[in-house]
Amino acid sequence: MGTSFGRGGATTFQQDLAEADCILIQGSNMAEAHPVGFQWVMEAKHRGARIIHVDPRFTRTSALADQHVPLRAGSDIAFLGGLINHVLTQDAYFAEYVLHYTNAAMIVGADFADTEDLDGLFSGFDPETGSYDTASWQYEGGFAEPTLGRRGTDSQAGKRHARERETSGPERAGSGGPVYHGHARTDPTLQHPRCVFQLLKRHYARYTPEMVEQVCGVPAEEFLRVARTLVANSGRERTTAMAYAVGWTHHTVGVQYIRAASILQLLLGNIGRPGGGILALRGHASIQGSTDIPTLYNLLPGYLPMPHAHTHADLDAYVSEDEQASGYWGNIRSYLISLLKAWWGEHATADNDYCFDRLPRLDGDHSTFRTVVGQIEGTVKGYFVIGENPAVGTANARQQRMGLANLDWLVVRDLNLVETATFWQDGPEIATGEMRAEDIGTEVFFLPAAAHTEKDGSFTNTQRLLQWHHKAVEPRDDQRSDLWFYYHLGRVLREKLRGSDRPRDRSLRELTWDYPTHGAIDEPSADAVLAEINGSGGEGVPLSAYTQLRPDGSTSCGCWIYCGVRAEGVNQAARRTPGREQTRVAPEWGWAWPANRRLLYNRASADPDGNPWSDRKAYVWWDAERGEWTGHDIPDFDRHKRPDHVPAPGATGPEGIAGTDPFVMQTDGRGWLYVPSGLVDGPFPAHYEPQESPVPNRLHPHQQRNPAREVRSRPENRYQPSGDERGSAVYPYVFTTFRITEQHTAGGMSRWLAHLSELAPAMFLEVSPELAAERGLDHVGWATVITARSAIEGRVLVTSRIRPLQLDGRTIHQIGIPWHWGPNGLTTGDAANELINVALDPNVHIMETKAGTCDIRPGRRPRGPDLRLLVEQYRRRAGITELTGAEYLDHPARTGEEER
Fold first, then answer.
1. For the chain, how long is the longest CA-to-CA vector?
2. CA 20 to 30 Å from 32, out of 306, 470, 554, 737?
């Protein structure tokens, strides 16, 4: 969504779903995985909205929807592409919105070639590095900065390292689209053959209802029913909302799933309008916060990109691209310098570039999956695991345990003794004989953590809303909060370095590490941390908005998008004004970034002249008498910028945004149907099969998988053949993972609770009656699922909720596998992540857990060494080698073979 609209967060808020005329939920079982937010879906239904659920399984969400559409896991782009094609061919798009608020009219350069021209590839693909040069994707008359890391590909380092240098590329633009310069040629008639609108029509022309049926297994009439419902509930008078979760993101084309939804919502005019938008549902309370502040290796707080070793020698080099562009990213110098001041205070001055040189530099991929390879190869010696459980909760759990077993030390902080803390004594490899406890040298430190009820702090939920929670009880014994742990760890380290005169130690010694503490255990003040994040100006006065940040070092702010959460020195996140005492937007319940704005891009809720598209869907509009934007929410726009404002020639930053440009974080102020730069696997979403699929790619027969995906074939991470490849029949069934309400993520918080263990007492495998008959599976009996990584067992749940699909005359069976179990706790079972390979989306390095292939057979899995023998037998039958699933395009630098 960042490349499409300008920010990487949900465009809408959950309560606004009640205003929708239609809600499409896809890639999520919202009723079960997000039950609190689902109340607003039910409110919309009560008001007459149509609810559509597209999902491989019939779930609690499906039971409450007006239409459930089962489809094959991993085929969503074909389905969404079919919807896009329907909207375009039926002239059902919101024409005025598309013309004025998207990049539909922009003309792409003559060198661009589409997947329809190159049989599944876009122009610029380099098979040696498995990556794209985006130069041919640019607009005619404009030039986008190349993806970071692409520069210097032909340098002395050579193409062998191009992939590593490119890994941070998409984050160059922070949470928004990349910078481009010049003035793109446009065709307001949308007839030029190379304008974005015509390229879009051509790209999706083959995504017909018949093709959707052949690829997704959705009957054409069922598909058309969805398409007609969306069209009927979009436009001036009506709006449709979309909601997704990890059912979309956990794919090798996960980013392009969301891009396809973004294109559809832009065409229908549903972004920035009440009852519209796209809601990115987060798995639990502060997942959004963990990307805002963040816990990601390639971002700084507020989606500022991490500096890159090859291009960012100083602060000026870091900010230069954004400062030359229009939109609010043009103020990046203010955001960054204020962050540096928050971290190093008086030590950050203009004379030392505000300590910019102290920031880490990216020199490649440092994601969790590269880290575990480093552990196995001996280059990563120590590991902190905080609130995670990779021994069962991460894709290819066996690979994770192999990494853990090769560490010098491991720190685990959790509520319970999770599998990551005990792998060395009772992990599956101990039982199979692959590891012996006495041979594992990892020193494990288990530190009990305080639960959320035992600490103060904030959650940032799925709609960018910060909500403060107060401590209910004191933590017992030696349980400690995460804030206590990190603060005192930093305090001890700083104390040890007090007398050091080494330049490298100054970055730690001079940190602003002076938070007040209280109580018997010296608990740091969470409110003081929030105050630092909010930021302050002269004499420590709290700031009220990120527009107050300055590039001269006079302001400090720990996260610019959170600036204002402590406006006037008041914790705005702690507000709890009852709904009956305020408007439906509820601006006094918590605080939403940015600027307590609940609906992003809401300038688009009005027409180019500033008038609401309709009285029924009025939200924000121009008040000519008062000379300002007003409405039901805080305008996501310069409040006093007139609708007819035309920027001065050469204007940059916010001043470069016209009065008709709602997407204020984008260089051109438009929503992007086409991405000229900023993504590494294509300017349009194209259907590719998952890394492992039972069928060939019907749309692009010579390009089975995403050619730019990240693959790392290793002995413990072998891939399976797919489609028509030799040996694919060994793993004939599709499986997808899912979650249930009664358990929580990898089970670390729930499998130790008696009442939840009683509600969901056993690991199970959900299959259709037809598959049960085909493979001889008995309801509540045992079955074993096998992939090239491992085999697991579970109780069989035979149900018609998951039904066979017909694809071009072939029956495809799917298996649902919950991912909450592991060997520790009150309810135990095999972990679904034992089955899953590590193949990644190239933009965000996220794993594909939602679509894989397997075999299933009755009975329990083998024990001891026989388990590995079973897996090896299947590998031999399928003819699996280190090249399987890597294709001819996959260079050794991408697979990891060269390093070994």
1. 80
2. 470
